[in-house]
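Open question from group meeting: does this chain pack into something compact, or does most of it stay loose? Before anyone orders reagents, we agreed to write out a predicted structure and look at it together. Recording both the input and the output here so the notebook holds the full record.
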Amino acid sequence: MSIKVDTKKYFDIDKTTLVKEEFNITVEDHAYLPHIDDIENDWLAFIAVPAFKLARKKHDGKAFSSFASIGTGPGLDVLAGAEILGAHKLGFTDLQDSVVNTAAANVRDNSADSSFNLVYGAGDLFDPFRGKGANGENQRFDVIYENLPNVPLSQDKVVTDSRNSGHYLEERQEPIPKEVHANMLDLHFLALNQVSSFLTKDGFILSLMGGRVSLDSFVRLGELAGVQSEIFTYGWKVQAEPEDVIGGYADQEAQGYGPFTFYRSEDLAAAFEGINVETSGAKAFEIESKLADKKLTATEAFEIWKKGGSIGHTVVVLKSYAK
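Structure tokens returned:
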């Protein structure tokens, strides 16, 4: 399917310089659908783009040379890496050739600058970047972005069916710490565990994760993966696809994982009142403490949602460097 995106509205910017003012995006059948008509439910526009803006501000406003997205989908995040971060070397991966090739066409067709260097391929996590640089070295990037799925795919489904890209195959060959698996952060751990080989000297990775476990668990995630991590930004959003996602977490609780944390949307709105993106990371633990008596398990949240309640969750952007 094809969608049109008002770029300035979607990125919340006054003008575009490196991409077109209106995107014409093809969303391949297996790619995750962006919520362009509901910005507050769109991970890229509502969570990632503000983090990108903050990252550039902390870079003294200077452009980053290179950007990569792991699990790009239709490629909107790559276009954001170009416009918001100023990157001209643009890398991206996804599991399927059809998704990656469509993303590449979207990036080319919606660019207003002909000097972009696209580096992409289909495969697991960073595999398409291995040995693809000069002299057979890995491709490396200043900023890497990932918003990988947390919910494992049902055993009767496969990733290549329809839009199952919002889920992942649970069986992995790599060892994953028990506490990471219990927190349903497997793919984030694997990305952080591998990322040092794909970052430039001062590069970093931004990991977007639903805050359905404690903030300590996210910091610990970086430690277990062998990187240095900090809470970069902290926010909240209403749970998108609640039947699928909250229900998926409730199923995992029934199997002994978790418990996972959700909140009534009105409680989140009150706790985050007056908090801006720039200060949110520093205030994250304070906000979490304020919400302590408002926690709902996934099982409780699912029942409230089924009765018409609005359920949300906190959102963590974890910034990690190679040690």
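Observations to bring back to the group:
Confidence is low (pLDDT under 50) at residues 155-168.
The chain is about 35% helix and 20% strand.
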